[in-house]
Automatic annotation (TrEMBL):
Taxonomy of the source species: Eukaryota, Viridiplantae, Streptophyta, Embryophyta, Tracheophyta
Source species of the chain: Quercus rubra (Northern red oak)
Coiled-coil boundaries: none
UniProt keywords, alphabetically: ATP-binding, Glutamine amidotransferase, GMP biosynthesis, Ligase, Nucleotide-binding, Purine biosynthesis
Every GMPS ATP-PPase domain range: 207-408
SUPFAM superfamilies found in the cross-reference section: Adenine nucleotide alpha hydrolases-like, Class I glutamine amidotransferase-like, GMP synthetase C-terminal dimerisation domain
Pfam families listed in its UniProt record: GATase (PF00117), GMP_synt_C (PF00958)
EC top class, as a word: ligase
Stated name of the protein: GMP synthase [glutamine-hydrolyzing]
């Protein structure tokens, strides 16, 4: 999907490293407005080429006083004003506007973190019908504060401590919020964003998933030549399945799907997935059993990043072999590989585009982003790479992918390799994990909880504990259960099970799975942890 081809107005977020930046993108898309996030240090050409109607400067962990603090290009303010582009700075973004346009930012006498009450000081474009004196709770997270405004700016709201909370320059169309309106801890923040985008900026809510589908089909047809053939790597998950269905709609039988059993799948995953592909989706799928190939390369490997790299390399090797077989059959070698890369994959796998890695850190390399070898012969097609998971599910419904399949919990590309902490080939770790995971997931389904949970799974821990089973001392394995709620996988809260449910599941696991004598539950949110353990 090309941002320039989207018919609706674009809201561009310049990312300066805030943990909430992705939430701004999500909140805006929920209003049927297309939004994208790129590095805040991107050159001006990268910004202007996207032709945004609005630019939002995100928050970040930096101080504008430090010499290496990230900033927008020097010519950005003049370009925005000359082209009628509305600019909103949030937290650090507000401070950048103030400092770069001639104002002053200083270290705050009283730092503000967490919930804080602010009050409207004068009639403001940002707050619409709000009257002077109206108050609201917001989420603050800053140590610096605005001391002096640039010419033409005015304070329109202050915190209960007297700190500048909102500013605006209606002539230049530059606005700023010292707090985070995008988080749920700012109860009226979404209404502020809605009013700002629709009333102040005049944006139209024209971004629809049907338009995304039509546009992506055009892009695929324009990319893949009329005689070209395409390989799609199916994992059995929602993302790759929707991607395959979309490409199949665009080019028909020139799509050739491959499902690889890498020995790292869940309990009976291969049989269940292949049946769905054949009976429900009617996709042409070749199944390849590469268990020995993968596990032999993973023997002795404990580092999760190394696992991901190895798995990514082996997948590509198999895809190349599959392409050679197709070449013999078709007389023409496939040129492209389809993958179900999503926007969170891109965000988490690398710094924002154009970044010199000065203010963003790689969380993990995804198998379909950071794990691919540089000498890969196939060219990538990633039709979902600007979409979040819930948006992919919307697209899948439009493409008539069966609802039960769309509701499947996410499963990582590296499979159980990132759910066995340590060497996946040691002992019977994979078999134990498959059995535990099956009991856990089936119990969730039996309790009617599956659709209320974003993702649930079991983890094999590299520790043993002493237990008593059958009046005998045991020294067996420990497994962990993880279940989270989320909207897009970028943040998540742990799911609160009733104690009876956990008691029942724990008993089933310890009584049914040989080699396990202890079950623990992960009650950590994201952040600070990731959803997967690794």
């Amino acid at each position: 999907m090309d941002a320039n081809a989207v018919k609706s107005d674009l809201v561009l977020i310049l990312d300066f490293g805030s943990q909430y930046t992705h939430l701004i993108t999500r909140r805006i898309r929920s209003l049927s407005i297309f939004s994208l996030c790129i590095s805040g240090t991107s050159p001006l050409e990268a910004i202007t080429s996207l032709n945004p109607r609005v630019v939002i400067l995100s928050g970040g962990p930096h101080s504008v006083h430090t010499p290496d603090s990230p900033s927008f290009p020097p010519q950005f303010p003049e370009w925005a004003e000359a082209n009628g582009v509305v600019v909103l700075g949030i937290c650090y973004g507000l401070q950048l506007i103030v400092q770069r346009l001639g104002g002053e930012v200083r270290v705050g006498e009283k730092q503000e973190y967490g919930r804080m009450e602010i009050g409207v000081e004068k009639s403001a474009a940002l707050y619409g019908s709000k009257r002077v004196g109206d108050r609201q709770l917001v989420w603050m997270s800053h140590g610096d504060e605005v001391a002096r405004l640039p010419d033409g700016f005015e304070v329109v709201a202050r915190s209960q401590q007297g700190t500048v909370a909102a500013v605006e320059n209606r002539v230049k169309r530059f606005y700023g919020l010292q707090y985070h309106p995008e988080v749920t801890h700012s109860p009226e923040g979404m209404e502020t964003l809605r009013y700002f985008l629709f009333e102040v900026c005049g944006i139209n809510a024209g971004w629809k998933m049907e338009n995304v589908m039509d546009e992506e089909i055009k892009v695929i047809k324009g990319t893949v030549g009329p005689e070209d053939h395409v390989i799609c790597a199916l994992s059995g998950g929602v993302d790759s399945t929707v991607a395959a269905t979309l490409v199949h709609k665009a080019i028909g039988d020139r799509l050739h799907c491959i499902f690889v059993d890498n020995g790292l799948l869940r309990y009976k995953e291969r049989e269940r997935v292949m049946e769905t592909f054949e009976s429900d989706l009617h996709l042409p799928v070749t199944c390849v059993d590469a268990t020995d190939q993968f596990l032999s390369k993973l023997k002795g490997v404990v580092d999760p990043e190394t696992k991901r790299k190895i798995i990514g390399k082996e997948f590509i090797s198999i895809f190349d072999d599959f392409a050679q077989e197709l070449e013999k059959k078709l007389g023409k070698r496939p040129s492209y590989l389809v993958q179900g890369t999503l926007y969170p994959d891109v965000i988490e796998s690398c710094p924002p585009p154009g970044s010199g890695r000065t203010h963003s850190h790689t969380i993990k390399s995804h198998h379909n982003v950071g794990g691919l070898p540089k000498d890969m012969k196939l060219k990538l097609i990633e039709p979902l790479k600007l979409l979040f998971k819930d948006e992919v599910r919307q697209l899948g419904r439009i493409l008539n992918v069966p609802e039960p399949f769309l509701k499947r919990h996410p499963f990582p590309g590296p499979g159980l390799a990132v759910r066995v902490l340590g060497d996946v080939t040691q002992g019977n770790a994979l078999d134990i994990l498959r059995q535990v995971d099956e009991i856990f997931i089936q119990s969730i389904k039996d309790a009617g909880l599956y659709d209320s949970i974003w993702q649930a799974f079991a983890v094999f821990l590299p520790v043993r504990s002493v237990g008593v089973q059958g009046d005998q001392r045991t020294h067996s394995h420990v497994v962990a259960l993880r279940a989270v709620t989320s909207q897009d996988g970028m943040t998540a809260d742990w799911y609160y099970f009733e104690h009876k449910f956990l008691d029942d599941v724990s008993r089933k696991i310890c009584n049914s799975v040989r080699g396990v004598n202890r079950v623990v539950q992960d009650i950590t949110s994201k952040p600070p942890s990731t959803i997967e353990w690794e």
